[in-house]
Design brief:
The protein has 209 residues and is mainly alpha-helical. It is built from twelve helices and two strands, in the order ααααααααααββαα. The chain has helices at residues 2-25, 33-41, 44-54, 61-72, 75-80, 82-94, 110-126, 129-133, 137-148, 150-172, 180-183, 186-208; strands at residues 174-175, 178-179. The chain has a two-stranded antiparallel ribbon with strand order 1-2. Strand 1 (174-175) and strand 2 (178-179) form a beta hairpin. Helix 6 crosses helix 9. The radius of gyration is 29 Å and the shape is globular.
Amino acid sequence: NFRILKKARVIISLVFFLLISFLIIDFTNALSGKLIQGILYTQFLPSLLNFIGIAALAATGFIFIILLNLLFGRIYCSTLCPLGTFQDIIIRLKKPFAKKKKFRYQRSFYFLQYGLLAVSALLLLLGLITPLLFLDPYSNYGRIAANLFRPVYLLLNIVEITEIFFNKIKVSLPAFGRPLKHLLSPSNTQNELPPLLHRHSQIHRLKEL
């Protein structure tokens, strides 16, 4: 049973991680509005801010997250939070190269946890959203994905678009009955360009007359 739960948690966390990552790096609006709303519904701060803005039932995701954590523990951090999943991936990739360490039991730093909670609540009550974003895990992962993954995604799209563009030019653009590639080849440049220049000069003279 424990193994089944672990596999289910891993699958769900990867699904949310990939969807949220694509939502952040995508610039083509490939995802539908309903899907975007569904993704943001499961993120605490975006859902809370949306609820403050419109006060609708569709923006009560933060209440759902609170109830889940009260019933099942820190399920948001281990399953729904993209930053938590990203940390798990980094630890997993690092594991074969890292030295094994023996971890000892340490008491929880309750003063730090509740201190950050109090600061977050105070910032929210004062309407200071920008400082609050630096404490939100979803916002922190958004900055990581935007600066780390988005340039790679843009570069891959630029390379693909450029390749498609030049392939279409080679196939569909003839030049005087011959492919453009044939015209620009070094072996044909000397033979092709003089007649073209001669024709151009004749046309220019006729226009002057």
